[in-house]
């Protein structure tokens, strides 16, 4: 169930999505409120799970992960055992930065960050050793047009 937000919540969340390292003083000043109500709102947003985590976002290229592949997977198996093996295989691989189950012709899409095509091939070979896949289509991202972790806030 979606949480209800007022303008203060939205302003705090917008700031934190852009820079979670802001001090409480900075946040309070930017949203035009005193520190205590801002701190209480942030605590409430954390406790309710709206704020899941505060992390450092790394630049993939600067840490040597220059290749991003999107992997489209179709499976002929939809039983619980196959799904459990697939989930274990995907969740255990740090190269997989996102995984989604889809509606439509493609069953799953993975976002895989690796240093190069050779590393992707190693990932692919390891994956198909662990789980049977009917069809895999991989596409290499040539350029990032937009990448954000900021979510649009209902309002």
From TrEMBL:
GO biological process: regulation of DNA-templated transcription; response to amino acid
Matching InterPro entries: ArsR-like_HTH, AsnC-type_HTH_dom, Dimeric_a/b-barrel, Tscrpt_reg_AsnC-like, Tscrpt_reg_AsnC/Lrp_C, WH-like_DNA-bd_sf, WH_DNA-bd_sf
Transmembrane regions: none
SUPFAM superfamilies per record: Dimeric alpha+beta barrel, Winged helix' DNA-binding domain
Keywords, comma-separated and alphabetical: DNA-binding, Transcription, Transcription regulation
Any Gene Ontology CC annotation: cytosol
Entry's Gene Ontology molecular function annotations: sequence-specific DNA binding
Gene3D superfamilies: 3.30.70.920, Winged helix-like DNA-binding domain superfamily/Winged helix DNA-binding domain (1.10.10.10)
Residues covered by the HTH asnC-type domain: 5-66
Alphabetized PANTHER family for the sequence: DNA-BINDING TRANSCRIPTIONAL ACTIVATOR DECR (PTHR30154:SF17), LEUCINE-RESPONSIVE REGULATORY PROTEIN (PTHR30154)
Name under which the protein is recorded: Lrp/AsnC family transcriptional regulator
């Amino acid at each position: 169930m979606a949480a209800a937000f007022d303008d203060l919540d939205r302003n705090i969340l917008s700031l934190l999505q852009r820079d979670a390292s802001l001090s409480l003083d900075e946040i309070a000043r930017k949203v035009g409120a005193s520190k205590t109500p801002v701190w209480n709102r942030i605590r409430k947003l954390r406790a309710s799970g709206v704020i899941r985590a505060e992390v450092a976002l790394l630049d993939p290229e600067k840490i040597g992960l220059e290749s991003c592949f999107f992997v489209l997977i179709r499976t002929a198996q939809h039983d619980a055992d196959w799904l459990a093996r697939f989930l274990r295989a995907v969740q255990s691989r740090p190269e997989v930065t996102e995984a989604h189950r889809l509606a439509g012709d493609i069953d799953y899409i993975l976002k895989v960050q690796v240093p190069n095509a050779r590393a992707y091939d190693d990932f692919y070979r390891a994956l198909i050793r662990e789980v049977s896949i009917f069809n895999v289509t991989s596409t290499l991202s040539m350029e990032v047009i937009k990448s954000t972790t900021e979510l649009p806030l209902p309002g």
